[in-house]
Give the backbone structure.
Amino acid sequence: MSSNQNGEHLKELEVTGCTLLRDIKKNTIVDIYGVVTKFKLPTKTRGQDFVCSISVADPSRGMGQMGDTSINLFHHNSQTLPQFRGTGDIFVLRRARVQAFQNKLQCVSIKSNTTWAIIPSRPSGKDPSNEIVPVNIPGMVLSLDEKDYHVIRILQDWLQTMPSSGNTFATLAPQPSGNNSTTFQFPGKMLRTISQINRPGLFSDLVAEVVGHYSDTERKTTQLLVVDYTTNELLVDQEISRFGVAGRRVIMCTLFDEHHQYCPKVNTGSFVFIRNANSKLDMNQCLELRVHGDRDRKLMNPGVRLLARDDPRLVPLLEKRHEYMSSIQQLPKKSTLQLNSDSSQQRVWTVTKHKDINITPLSTVVASKMANKFRVRACVIDYKPKIIKDMVRPWCSRCQKSCSPCENPNMSCTFCMAKITVYKYQFACLLQDAHGVQLPVIFYDKDAEMFLCNSAPSNLYLEDYAASELKEQIDTICPAGKSSNVWLDFCIQSYMVDIDGQKDRRFRVFDTELKIH
């Protein structure tokens, strides 16, 4: 980059009155802006905090090792520390202390005082008038004003003048896609699709969607079943009823050590970035991934991070998913997967955890007298209560009873008058299998919440949007209270209840999640 280009952007920054990197002084508190040239993922310190190291640059000092300014940020929550999508992001830092280290000045965060924001880099050729949207950082709130946006645009323009090769940004790898979005590779690792992991012993970074997850507390491992909708001949050929995805697409990734311990809460449908996964062949010579901890370093670098749905790294995956879902619509209808007959052509299925349980006919379930767990395949032909808003009931934590729902935002328990603060799902569906046998099953509390894609219960008489969302979900499996001929797998368990001294056998759905696309 020429000195003239550097000077032009420098003059623009000087007009804004912002603090330039060349002007920071030892033992002062500063607000600075910079283009990220290097970064390290958060690691655990010897104390209670995590630390993240960053290098930034601006036109006042230029690029390169001599121009970069180092920043060390500390926080008790690793998720609050910056999670950069790539070098070239813009970093805004408020109230950091300037210190000298090895004859160079660096910025260090001040506990409970320093704040920061990340603005993703603008892909080459993208309209600079587009809205600047900071990355959402859990536990960090920093409001940006017009001056901030002006400085950010200047730095983005400065970055665009960089030559395409031979500079600090060799690790910034734009991959053009069909909608002009940009994906980025983390430096030092190869971002691969599942189809590109073609042999054991290959370390890869991976962007994927979770279709199943299990945690083994005894072995201290977490297993994620993930897809990116590409295929690999080294994978098992799955039936579509198993995970909602057919063919050789689902790969298992096992997390060990700190990666198991600090694995974020994932659900079916979560998008994740998996770092440094090693490919192996299992005992059946099928491909799997493993993310091991570093026992020699007592530093924490989680191998799995949740991705927001607007993350640019998801663009290729979402395109592949759209292609796959479109192809599914052309497949013949099967008992394990049916499409709604309406014009929207939604695809509806369920994901169940217990694949080792064989499908049991409802006649066998009804005839069984022992408390047991079953996996059944049936369609929903009716549900109760008919009023959708009554499917969530107020729950009294004191007397452990539910009350009738109503529109009162400050309702009290009708038994003990305690204030109601908890709500629980409670409804039933009538199942019918291919032999015409019917069975009523109960959806209750956390099991019902899981079935409904982890939608939190609330007072539906006061939450119209939540009520409409629930109605849409129920209508997909039983529109207007009539059978939709959508065949779904359910895990159910039988149990006995005592009603007025009489034993009554009931069935409850568990570990089953409804999927709608």
In short: The helical segments are 3-16, 146-160, 240-243, 257-261, 315-328, 362-367, 445-451, 464-477. DSSP finds eight helices and 23 strands in the chain. Residues 3-171 form a domain with the OB fold (Dihydrolipoamide Acetyltransferase, E2P) fold (CATH 2.40.50.140).
